[in-house]
């Protein structure tokens, strides 16, 4: 972990424990977020992106468990902290905003009270001071006449306004890291753009890092510095945003980008990625995308692909970019020697 | 708000009017002649007939009803057929007794239900949860006559902590009055507490799934803070509803409990008056009960809007 990393997730495994068995959902993912950087985690529903964010917050459901790996925040491993230590970090150094602004605010409390609550909790300010801070925060996120708004209830605000309130609440203790789990999905397109712009502005003003969970590549292009593409609990591609859009390598990433509707080309039918994500208990042994991949060979089904690194930290997990791909494609078999060559392969053209 | 209150008051008058018609008709179709009961079985038919005319019992029913209701509106509930005391006087003696029993029972119920409901919801699936479910189940299934006798047996006869039965007005001897009320209040309150525990548990469990609860944790609140500051108030609405209905029925008198503990409350009064065909007393007491139920429902509706600002009290359609 470099000293500039705000958060580094190393070999993280997360799953659900029931009485008999442990179902692994996230299988050994790695990424890091530098100070002041925005990382987008992209993937379709059920790929484990929300679970990743909840693991960082320590807010996994009761049966959820981090079974292996480290989550280093400012160099401190969060997986080893107890509930009390974790509650001092939550809402203070790491904050989170959620997808549904309609239901994420408590309907029976005034919004001023809800924002002040975490300020009083973490910064030990008096109620009066916290209320003033709440007004400042509302001003910061662009809510008009904040001194009146603090006396309103969530149902009296629109969806976009509520998400602004959520952001104000999340930022009220100057967190170092903001995790946003699809914060614009439930909003109108025009409001989406406003919220993204606001987040970009605040990131620079407050020098914080952002992890944005999304399935919307439009959002990614607006806000990301780096992108982590996840598929079925594994990282398939990790890159900075320009490289990813200019030169997507993994067949899954390519599929995602191709399936964005384009106005300047005439398309009869929008390309889709055929099939659906396999369920955790029927994961293919090899590459998890192999069941839907147009290039898949026998080897892909049976051998986990190595990580291939390219320029500027571009990483792809795919057999297609290994030096022995030609042989793999022809023979459909892999021996020990080929595994070694594969692992040493460099990604060309990124 | 004002229009809501006015509308509810209007509705209250209509409901009370309908209740008065029903209770008057029902009481008057009861077999048994009050005049005969008053004079005794040996009275001559002429004397009974004379008394019937005096009491107005031979007038057509609608005339009798009109005479009665016009007095009721003026605050005169009539006089008991039995001893000629004013019904209002009788009610003035009985209502405080029932009120005291109701308040203490409700207090007992809340005292048990709040902690039991919270613990079993927040510790779902543990021994705590199972014990409180067991308690709730037993509380609902034990009939009051059995529980009452059991309590007297254990706490009065066995341990001698409380007097077994009787009643002393609160202002005469507060301590003794409370001591006498505790066992009946537990008998009545346990049942309500069991219902409220179940209600609070399921309502809390549902609320704890909400996204704003997750927001609470994400803010850095611990479990206690989340439950007390965010979950409880949202979970209270069904609890208040059940409390309102139950307290309304308590005010109608807990006949069995009152009988076991010799508490001279409304329940006993109504039963005795029905047996002696003391129509004015029955009618007066039932009118009071109807009023109490309507009034409590009104209070519950007001409480909803205090608990949940999304519920607006408006005069128009909801």
Characteristic key phrases:
heterodimer, A: 350 residues, alpha/beta, 2 domains, four-stranded antiparallel sheet, B: 318 residues, MetI-like fold, 13 helices, globular, membrane (chain A)
Structure, explained:
The complex is a heterodimer of chains A (350) and B (318). By secondary structure, chain A is of the alpha/beta class. Chain A has 2 domains: 5-231, P-loop containing nucleotide triphosphate hydrolases (Rossmann fold), CATH 3.40.50.300; 266-343, no CATH class. Chain A is built from 14 helices and 12 strands. Chain A has helices spanning 49-57, 83-89, 101-104, 111-123, 127-140, 146-149, 159-171, 189-206, 217-223, 241-246, 251-258, 298-302, 325-331, 336-343; strands at 5-17, 22-34, 38-42, 64-73, 76-77, 94-97, 177-181, 209-214, 226-231, 234-240, 307-309, 315-317. In chain A, strands 6-7-8-3-9-10-12-11 form an 8-stranded mixed beta sheet, with helices on both faces. In chain A, strands 2-1-4-5 form a 4-stranded antiparallel beta sheet, covered by helices on one side. Chain A is globular and about 70 Å long. By secondary structure, chain B is mostly helical. Chain B has 2 domains: 2-87, no CATH class; 91-307, Orthogonal Bundle (MetI-like fold), CATH 1.10.3720.10. Chain B is built from 13 helices and no strands. In chain B, helix 5 packs across helix 8 and helix 6 (127-141) crosses helix 8 (174-208). Chain B is globular, with a radius of gyration of 24 Å. Chain B starts with a helix and ends in an 11-residue tail after the last helix. The model of chain B has no long low-confidence stretch (mean pLDDT 85). Chain A: It is found in: Cell membrane. Chain A: It holds the Pfam family ABC_tran. Chain A: Residues 9-257 form the ABC transporter domain.
Brief sketch in words of this structure:
Chain A: This is Peptide ABC transporter ATP-binding protein. Chain A: It is a peripheral membrane protein. Chain A has 350 residues and is α/β, with parallel strands linked by helices.
């Amino acid at each position: 972990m470099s000293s500039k990393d705000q958060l580094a997730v190393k070999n993280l495994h997360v799953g659900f424990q029931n009485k008999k068995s442990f179902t692994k959902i996230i299988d050994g993912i790695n990424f890091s977020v530098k100070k002041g950087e925005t990382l987008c985690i992209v993937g379709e529903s059920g790929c484990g992106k929300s679970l990743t964010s909840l693991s960082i917050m320590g807010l996994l459901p009761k049966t959820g468990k981090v079974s292996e790996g480290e989550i280093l925040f400012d160099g401190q491993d969060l997986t080893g902290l107890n509930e009390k230590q974790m509650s001092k970090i939550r809402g203070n150094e790491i904050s989170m905003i959620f997808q549904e602004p309609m239901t994420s605010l408590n309907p029976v409390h005034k919004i001023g009270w809800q924002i002040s609550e975490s300020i009083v909790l973490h910064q030990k300010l008096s109620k009066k001071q916290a209320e003033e801070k709440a007004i400042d925060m509302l001003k910061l996120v662009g809510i008009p006449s904040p001194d009146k708004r603090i006396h309103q209830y969530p149902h009296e605000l629109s969806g976009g306004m509520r998400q602004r309130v959520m952001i104000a609440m999340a930022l009220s203790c100057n967190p170092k890291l903001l995790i946003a789990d699809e914060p614009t999905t439930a909003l109108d397109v025009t409001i989406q753009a406003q919220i993204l712009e606001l987040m970009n502005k605040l990131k620079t003003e407050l020098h914080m890092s952002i992890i944005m969970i999304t399935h919307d590549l439009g959002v990614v292009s607006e806000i990301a510095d780096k992108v982590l593409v996840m598929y079925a609990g594994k990282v398939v591609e990790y890159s900075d945003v320009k490289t990813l859009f200019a030169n997507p390598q993994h067949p899954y990433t390519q599929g995602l980008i191709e399936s964005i509707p384009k106005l300047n080309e005439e398309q009869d039918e929008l390309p889709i990625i055929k099939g659906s994500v396999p369920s955790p208990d029927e994961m293919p042994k090899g590459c998890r995308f192999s069941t839907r991949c147009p290039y898949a060979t026998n080897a892909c089904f049976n051998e986990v692909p190595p990580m291939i690194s390219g320029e500027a930290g571009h990483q792809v997990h795919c057999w297609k970019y290994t030096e022995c791909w030609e042989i793999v494609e022809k023979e459909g078999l892999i021996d020990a020697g080929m595994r070694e060559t594969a692992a040493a392969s460099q990604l060309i053209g990124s | 708000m004002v229009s809501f209150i006015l509308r509810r008051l209007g509705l209250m008058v209509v409901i009370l009017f309908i209740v008065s018609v029903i209770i008057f008709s029902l009481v008057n179709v009861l077999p048994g002649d009050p005049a005969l009961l008053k004079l005794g079985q040996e009275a001559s038919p002429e004397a009974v007939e004379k008394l019937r005319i005096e009491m107005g019992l031979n007038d057509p029913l609608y005339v009798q009803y009109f005479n009665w209701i016009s007095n009721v509106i003026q605050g005169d509930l009539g006089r008991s057929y039995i001893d000629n005391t004013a019904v209002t006087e009788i009610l003035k003696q009985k209502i405080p007794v029932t009120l005291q029993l109701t308040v203490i029972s409700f207090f007992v119920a809340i005292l048990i239900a709040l902690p039991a409901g919270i613990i079993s919801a927040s510790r779902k699936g543990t021994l705590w949860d199972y014990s409180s479910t067991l308690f709730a189940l037993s509380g609902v299934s034990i009939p009051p006559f059995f529980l009452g006798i059991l309590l007297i047996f254990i706490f009065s006869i066995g341990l001698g902590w409380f007097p077994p039965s009787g009643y002393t007005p609160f202002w005469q001897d507060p301590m003794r009055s409370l001591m006498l009320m505790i066992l009946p209040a537990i008998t009545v309150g346990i049942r309500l507490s069991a219902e409220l525990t179940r209600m609070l548990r399921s309502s809390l469990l549902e609320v704890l799934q909400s996204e704003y609860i997750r927001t609470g944790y994400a803010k850095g609140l611990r479990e206690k803070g989340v439950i007390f500051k965010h979950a409880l108030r949202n979970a209270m609405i069904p609890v208040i509803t059940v409390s309102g209905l139950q307290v309304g029925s308590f005010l109608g008198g807990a006949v069995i409990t009152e009988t076991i503990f010799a508490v001279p409350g409304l329940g006993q009064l109504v039963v005795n008056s029905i047996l002696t065909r003391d129509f004015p007393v029955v009618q007066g007491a039932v009118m009071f009960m109807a009023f109490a139920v309507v009034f409590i429902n009104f209070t519950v509706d007001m409480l909803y809007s205090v608990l949940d600002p999304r519920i607006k009290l408006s005069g128009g359609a909801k």
